[in-house]
């Protein structure tokens, strides 16, 4: 008893340690890189912990099924007290009388049973359970890749929002300069009041754009913190990697790598293998089981020795067609699993091709946007010079400023889309 209590005490002491999750790292007060953000997510994100727990549970289910192949030992002890009443007639006693007596019966025994042969049914069940554990393991990798993509997208969206803040603040500064110029010209009587009003409208619109970009930055930071598994209000600061880096890839090689590296594809093939193992198990259900067993114990008040050895053959000859229906169900599931493998091959090929097209399209937009920014900057410089010289209109200046801001926004959008397209290409190929 003391040994049992000590074991329970050790188990209770170990439970808090087993339930403890990794503590969040210190992010506030420093600038983190994309690689650090991904590492933080893969270490402490609760979704990863949940998938790991599911995998552990699946491994223990394999042990549960395998346990049926091992000897089964049980002990029992039964005590019963029985009251019996009998009636008898005695002439010497002067008539009939009732006799009551009690009987105590005690049986104690230990029974051992062992499955000797079941034509491979138990091994087929173990194989199905093992496939289930392997599927659960692929879930872990699938979640890791999904979180990596989520972190990359949120990280890029945060940088994109910060880039828009800078662009719109520059636009606000330009609009403020134009407003001061328009007021100066109006004060000396060389420009009408409408120029001042138009410049004031531009300043107000630029302020609205700055507010909108600032709100987008806060939302992007919340998304990044959530993807990393840290409190959403953490003031996370990131390294700016929103720059153009050309890449080259082999289309045929990417398709081959995707089929080898995508956890969904491995999962689907494992499910097909598990369905085939289950079909084999359903077929073996038509065959008998052979079990050996025996028990040893004692019975009655004097505890006389009792024992038995037995050999049992169990064969269910008819069950109303239940086993046939289960077998046909398993065969249909095998056909469906094989079809899903082929369908997923087509989906993966489509995703890889679309991801490559997305990278190429974003690459081309970056080149075009950079040319547009250069042209818009020159156009704004000329328009501002004409306006300051008194030969240009406020409409020409505000249009040039609007085109410059739009071109800079498009360049930032193209750079962000390019980064996200590369992240999605990695995900479509099965890379983190």
Summarize the SSE layout with pairings.
Layout (H helix, E strand, L loop, with lengths): L1 H18 L11 E2 L1 H11 L1 H21 L5 E19 L4 E23 L3 H67 L5 H36 L8 E2 L12 H11 L1 H22 L4 E11 L4 E11 L7 H68 L4 H36 L3
Parallel strand pairs: 1-4
Antiparallel strand pairs: 2-3, 3-5, 5-6
Helix pairs in contact: 2-4, 3-4, 4-5, 4-7, 4-9, 6-8, 7-8, 8-9
Beta percentage is 15-25%
The helix count comes to 9
- Total number of beta strands: 6
The structural class is alpha+beta
Give the overall shape, derived from the CA principal axes.
elongated
Helix content: 55-70%
**Biggest β-sheet: strands ordered side by side in the sheet:** 2-3-5-6
Question: What is the residue-mean pLDDT, rounded to a whole number?
Answer: 84
Radius of gyration: 39 Å
- Terminal CA distance reads 52 Å
Described by strand count, sense and barrel closure, the largest sheet is: 4 strands, antiparallel
Order of helices and strands: HEHHEEHHEHHEEHH
Low-confidence stretches: 1-20
Task: Please describe what this structure looks like.
There is one protein chain. The protein is an alpha+beta fold and 432 residues long. The chain contains nine helices and six strands; from the N terminus they run H-E-H-H-E-E-H-H-E-H-H-E-E-H-H. It has a four-stranded antiparallel beta sheet, with no helix packed on it. A two-stranded parallel ribbon has the order 1-4. Helix 4 (121-187) runs antiparallel to helix 5 and helix 7 packs antiparallel against helix 8. The longest helix is centred in the last third of the chain and has 68 residues, at 322-389. It starts with a helix and ends with a helix. Residues 1-20 have low confidence and may be disordered.
């Amino acid at each position: 008893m003391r040994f049992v209590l000590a074991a329970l005490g050790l188990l209770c002491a170990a439970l808090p340690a087993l339930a403890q999750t990794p503590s969040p790292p210190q992010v506030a007060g420093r600038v983190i890189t994309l690689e650090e953000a991904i590492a933080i997510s893969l270490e402490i994100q609760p979704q990863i912990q949940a998938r790991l727990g599911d995998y552990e549970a699946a491994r223990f289910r394999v042990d549960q099924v395998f346990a049926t192949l091992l000897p089964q030992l049980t002990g029992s002890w039964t005590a019963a007290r029985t009251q019996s009443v009998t009636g008898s007639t005695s002439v010497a006693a002067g008539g009939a009388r009732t006799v009551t007596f009690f009987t105590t019966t005690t049986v104690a025994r230990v029974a051992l049973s062992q499955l000797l042969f079941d034509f491979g049914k138990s091994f087929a069940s173990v194989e199905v359970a093992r496939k289930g554990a392997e599927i659960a393991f692929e879930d872990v990798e699938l979640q890791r890749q999904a979180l990596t993509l989520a972190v990359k997208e949120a990280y890029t969206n945060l940088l994109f929002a910060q880039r828009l803040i800078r662009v719109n603040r520059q636009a606000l500064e330009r609009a403020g300069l134009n407003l001061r110029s328009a007021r100066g010209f109006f004060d000396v009587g060389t420009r009408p009041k409408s120029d001042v009003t138009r410049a004031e409208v531009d300043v107000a619109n630029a302020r609205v754009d700055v507010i909108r970009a600032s709100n987008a930055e806060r939302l992007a930071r919340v998304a990044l913190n959530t993807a990393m598994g840290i409190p959403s209000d953490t003031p996370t600061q990131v390294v700016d990697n929103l720059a153009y880096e050309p890449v080259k890839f082999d289309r045929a090689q990417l398709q081959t790598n995707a089929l080898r590296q995508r956890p969904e594809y491995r999962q689907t093939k494992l499910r097909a293998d598990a369905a085939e193992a289950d079909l084999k198990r359903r077929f073996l259900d038509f065959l008998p089981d052979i079990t050996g067993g025996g028990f040893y114990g004692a019975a009655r008040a004097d505890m006389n020795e009792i024992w038995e050895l037995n050999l049992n053959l169990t064969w269910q000859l008819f069950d109303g067609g239940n086993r046939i229906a289960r077998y046909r169900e398993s065969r249909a599931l095998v056909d469906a699993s094989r079809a899903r493998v082929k369908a997923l091959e087509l989906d993966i090929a489509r995703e890889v091709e679309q991801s490559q097209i997305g990278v190429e399209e974003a690459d081309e937009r970056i080149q075009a946007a950079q040319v547009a920014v250069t042209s818009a900057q020159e156009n704004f410089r000329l328009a501002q010079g004409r306006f300051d010289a008194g030969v240009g209109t406020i409409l020409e200046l505000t249009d040039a400023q609007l085109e410059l801001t739009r071109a800079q926004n498009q360049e930032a959008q193209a750079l962000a889309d390019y980064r996200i397209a590369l992240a999605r290409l990695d995900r479509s190929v099965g890379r983190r």
